[in-house]
Amino acid sequence: MPASFPQYVTEAITGPLPDPPGVKLQKEGLHAKHPVVFVPGIVTGGSSSGRATSAPRGSSGSASGAAHSATCTRARIGYEEKNMYMAAYDWRLSFQNTEVRDQTLSRIKSNIELLVATNGGNRVVVIPHSMGVLYFLHFMKWVEAPPPMGGGGGPNWCAKHIKAVTNIGGPFLGVPKAVAGLFSSEAKDVAVARAIAPEVLDSDFLGLQTLRHLMRMTRTWDSTMSMIPKGGETIWGGLDWSPEDGVECKSKKKKVNDSEVSKDVNGEPVEVHPEPVNYGRMVSFGKDVAEAPVSDIEQIEFRDAVKGSNLAHSNTSCRDVWTEYHELGWGGIKAVADYKVYTASSIIDLFHFVAPRMMQRGSVHFSYGIADDLDDPKYNHYKYWSNPLETKLPNAPEMEIFSMYGVGIPTERAYVYKLSPQAECYIPFQIDASAEGGDENSCLKGGVYLSDGDETVPVLSAGYMCAKAWRGKTRFNPSGSKTYVREYSHSPPSTLLEGRGTQSGAHVDIMGNFALMEDIIRIAAGATGEELDGDQVYSDIFKWSERIKLKL
Q: One of 47, 64, 94, 130 is an active-site residue; which one?
């Protein structure tokens, strides 16, 4: 008998549903072996601090529901409070400051040590999600570093205490969404809503000033700066190239001799080749600039431009929605637009120009470069610990690292911008939602260039480290910890009765993906990556990784 009436109705329509992973694996005789530690992201956990008053963007809704589902699934094979731990932290703070203010890193260290000691010496399986992936990267460096900056666990702590790290939806190299969020408090959906109803998001009517309030708030969350793209043009591409060159933004592919075939009005076959997309141009002022040959783009240097007069020097009404844009002046705004196009490298300089206070604060805690020499003592500083391109993995050859993420969903990769109409207290730049590609299969939708990913994290960011930079013994993985890429092809629910679906690859809903949960339970029950059949890949991550010329 189905467990609920909705399930009964669903099965009456679609037939019997497959057993949930916990039930299936319980029938196979699997049981709890390794204790598990869940490290949430922004949207999969509230705040660990009593000072937090809210948990934005679904932390108590869809995401926590998915996390609860995953917990119930693991309970089927014997997981309970004594062998599970939720490593909650105040995700608004920079990672090191969670230790300074709340001693969160120390608590995680103590709880992991207790789990290992009380579970027969079995090492933990860590399950970080989203920003939690970067947070746990920071933790692995912190726990072995000497005090006062580190936790003093010594160089073998991770080897002794961690069996595997199963990173879910990990933004290892940052996300372009963070660029749009910090630059104009926008993303694809906001840009479309703004185009449809600008009076709601842009108007000062009733003092709403929605986007300005959002920008003022999110720029105080130091953790958001951990999501700025890392690795510059080496990783994300330049003005005339990107690793994803040749990508097809087509929902259905029918290939004949490696090119899609359609028919013209007379029924004759016509070859359709993918349109060229300049993903390396992460921000372009105008669709024409995004598409122009490099030789036709005339950039005017912005870094030393005179910013001009204060936009809000006499406007006391802007006090509640003050952002650093109010000190930029028209001269600064014009200089930003006249530079025309920004890559992942010049984006960092752009943020230093338009938000110097934010970046001055963030630069104390985060870094976005590529290390020339990882043995340089400067990389012992905590600002580098969450950047996998500026740190080494722990000396833990038996520890396995998984990159597990959804694919098959259009994901934000680059943007077309324009200047906003001038108004009091305004954000001077906005995504140009009128910029569209040539047809329904175009990669350009509403001013946003889309690539493959999980709707939030592009494949490039989630997969590159495990596919290439950490694969085998490299300077980033000197002990040769084994790495695996496990991709989950997105399949939306077939009926509304299925809720978010059991095959979703979306950034949050993947926590309810049966295949993902089954993989994680098998790992926690003792399976190795090889016993899961190694890599499971649907995207072109290995081909794209080969195009990145990074010294390994």
A: 130
Quickly tell me which residue has 């290390």 as its tokens.
Answer: 371
Mean pLDDT of 393-399: 98
Contacts 24+ apart (CB under 8 A), 100-107: 101/49, 102/48, 102/49, 104/48, 105/139, 105/142, 105/143, 105/151, 106/151
Per-residue pLDDT tens over the stretch 427-453: 899 999 999 988 888 999 999 999 999
Catalytic status, residue 68: no
In percent, the amount of the chain with pLDDT more than 90 equals 63
- pTM recorded for the entire structure: 0.87
Catalytic residue among 102, 432, 454, 535: 454
Q: What percent of the chain has pLDDT over 70?
A: 76
* Catalytic-residue membership of 314: no
Q: Span 272-282, mean pLDDT?
A: 81
Q: What local confidence, expressed as pLDDT, does residue 239 receive?
A: 97
Q: Does the annotation count 507 as an active-site position? A: yes
Cα dihedral 473, 485, 82, 153, rounded to 10, equals 20
Strands 36-39 and 255-256: unpaired
Q: How far apart are CA 294 and CA 298, in angstroms?
A: 9
| Sequential DSSP letters for 271-322 | EEPPPP--TT--EEESHHHHHS-GGG------TT----S-TTTT-GGGGGG-
pLDDT computed for residue 218 by the predictor: 77
CB 179 within 8 A of CB 282: yes
Catalytic residue among 34, 138, 326, 507: 507
| Interatomic CA distance for residues 214 and 217, integer angstroms | 5
Give the position of tokens 């990913």: 453
